[in-house]
Amino acid sequence: MTAAPDQSPDGAAMAQDEAPRRPTPAEAWEILSAGNRRFVAGDPGHPNQDAERRHGLTAGQEPIAVIFGCSDSRLAAEIIFDVGLGDVFVIRTAGQVIDDAVLGTLEYAVDVLDIPLVVVLGHDSCGAVTAAVESYISGSMPPGFIRSLVERITPSVLAGRRRGVEDIDDFVAEHVDQTCDRLVDTSQSLARAVEQGRTAVVGLTYSLHEGTAQPGRVVGDLTI
After folding, report:
1. How far is CA 57 from each of CA 49, 53, 90, rounded to the nearest angstrom?
2. Is the separation of the CB atoms in 108 and 191 below 8 Å?
């Protein structure tokens, strides 16, 4: 005969003690930072990439960060932060452009998966940002749905121009910062999570040559 589960207060307390504690935004950031340092040094640990980890994730996922980055093939989040299966929840669009699907996915990550850190990840020499800057200078728009990308990046170009920005990589950094602010301004769910201290938002600009991810805008309680 199978014994009934322990329903006593002590038993409940034990069950709570056994539940893994979610990392704080700062702890999640340190895990990603340490992984990036290993990647830059050429000494990655390749954690959580074996069969045991794969099998252990069949019941669910508990990522420590959601990474909203550019679709560029050189910007593979799991590699540059040296993490593995189930560690990060990744969203990618060209030029990390925001749309309804992105916002819905972010809100799912923060409110359902309880992810403590949102990373906005741009990179130098970004083609989408370059197209937006060139469109602003020439006054002409690209064809097809690429126009939609350019239109959504143009506010960041205008913000950069008001600050006297000229270099493409400076426009990239501006776009990362503007995207961080726009996410919190647009999503009430994300704004609430930041206000409650459940999550924080950090903008990073990745160097294709060096492999480093330099922080920019921070929204919320996160010490860098």
Report:
1. 11, 6, 16
2. no
pLDDT tens figures, 7-52: 444 444 434 445 568 899 999 999 999 999 999 999 999 999 999 9
- Report whether 70 belongs to an annotated binding site: yes
Q: Is 180 flagged in the annotation as binding?
A: no
Q: Is 10 annotated as a binding residue?
A: no
* Strands in 161-212 per DSSP E: 200-206
Is the distance from CB of 224 to CB of 203 less than 8 angstroms?
Answer: no
| 123 annotated binding-site participant | yes
Distances (CA, A) of 178 to 93, 116, 152, 209: 16, 20, 11, 24
Condensed to tens digits (0 to 9), the pLDDT of residues 83-127 reads: 999 999 999 999 999 999 999 999 999 999 999 999 999 999 999
3-state secondary structure of 214: strand
Tokens of 160: 């950069």
Distance CA 74, CA 10 (A): 51
| Cα atoms found within 13 Å of the Cα of residue 128, Cβ hemisphere only | 27
Q: Which CATH architecture has domain 23-219?
A: 3-Layer(aba) Sandwich (3.40)
Q: Which residue do the tokens 């959504």 mark?
A: 152
* pTM as predicted: 0.89
**Residue pair 77/69 in contact by the 8 Å Cβ criterion:** yes
Q: Rg (Cα) of the chain, in Å, rounded?
A: 20
pLDDT digits (tens, 9 = 90+) for 51-63: 999 999 999 999 9
